[in-house]
Design goal:
By secondary structure, the chain is of the alpha+beta class. It is 34% helix and 33% strand.
Amino acid sequence: MNFTDIFIRRPVLATVISLLILVLGLRSMDQLLVREYPETQNAVVTISTTYFGADPDLVSGFITTPLENSIAQANGIDYMTSMSTQGASTITANLRLNYDPNKALTEITTKVNAVLNQLPKDTQQPVLSVEVGESIDSMYIGFYSNELPTNKITDYLIRVVQPKLQAVEGVQTAEILGSRQFAMRAWLDPEKMAAHGITGTEVNTALATNDFISAIGRTKGQMVTVDLVADTALHTTEEFRNLVIKSQNGANVRLGDIANITLGSENYDSSVSFDNATAVYIGIKVA
């Protein structure tokens, strides 16, 4: 007699045992231990340095290379990538898995500060930022208008939209892509500059001299207090056109005599579009 013959002759017993196994299985399902996925964290530290007017080879040799050699000595770096473009250097340090990003940022900052004296004197201060988690934007939001120019859209996004998005719980950063921030553009005419005997250095000096703001104190009366500010900054295109660059032979050479002054954007190196229209995007990175 086989073991299975018992269940054939007694179907009720077979049914009861089957139901018992089913009940025990359902009961055990809730009590099974679930092993969670191990918590992992990846982070990226980005070092951005600006050197206006320098070509990519100059940026690579005098900015990117010294910074890379120094940053590579910091602990916790898995690998690095760099990019040298016209007037800008970008170094990306990818950290080892689960390495403390705050500790890495501190060490990298120390290494960057150690070679600041080796960089060209006109180099802007390197800007360091750290991104923890996803390095790719989770979503993109596009903004465009048939009425407003791109720089006005960018200004609105920076002042109103971006702060609100970055305040949302779970959002790490809201990065503006294709931005066109307001900037006064002076398109110099080489022929006119040569005719007046003016160099680019003289133009730069005149602009820097007339961009000075300082609080010099305040005057106080019996009922009124007034803050005093020394302000030589220029604000309109007409003020820039009338800026005196050089005085020679009893005549003033103004910026408008050697350049075309327009209110434009800081740069025109990149552009994004939506439905064949120039637009500005915001990329959302989750925390």
